[in-house]
Amino acid sequence: MLGSVWFKASFMKPSRRASIGLEKRERTRSHLIESAYRVFARKETDAVTIDDIIAEAGVARGTFYNYFQTREDVLRAVAASLSDVINQKIWAQYATISDPAERMAIGLRQFLHQAMRDATWGWVIVRIGLVAAPLSETIERGLMSDLEAGIRLNRFQVESSQAAIDLVLGTALMATRTILEGHREPNYPEQVTKLVLKSLGVANDDAGAIAFKALEPLPEE
User: H helices within the chain, ranges in order?
Assistant: First the structure.
């Protein structure tokens, strides 16, 4: 029996062996990221050590270093994983919307409402947000795309794209923290969004209409 197993394994196609190896690596990497997420949810970012993550994951030190070289590497991976998952849902929701102001408003509101629904998610975002700003390349690309479209279409009036990005991301992080610290006013995300749109040059009435427009809930996992 053992000889039969060895015979089959030895004649496995190289492409199949490579595929299995990649799948195993991805599972291990995902496990490390999920373990780090749990640690960052419990402790302040500066207090988290590589040993904490290794202990949480239950892996050897060498296994950790096969995937990440520093604490900051895994921190950025956690940030990207958290933000990219919700980003995919948000993009699917506003794929047919052409107004960059409305697209930006949906993204900001969904992030803030997610923090209201899931405090653990929110605290991890806040704790690593400034260290791993802007959380992920996909967030930065999406925000820049909407911002440039808004400037091109005369929806936004800004002198510096980078200043505008910092305004949106910085406001989102601070508003998330405010929510997590107990500010549970139901329309707080909409109030924040209206102010952001006005800061980008959208007229008061228009900003209010966009910020308080009915928001479709994101699909559950």
Answer: 2-10, 14-42, 50-57, 61-65, 71-93, 100-117, 119-129, 137-152, 161-180, 188-199, 204-211
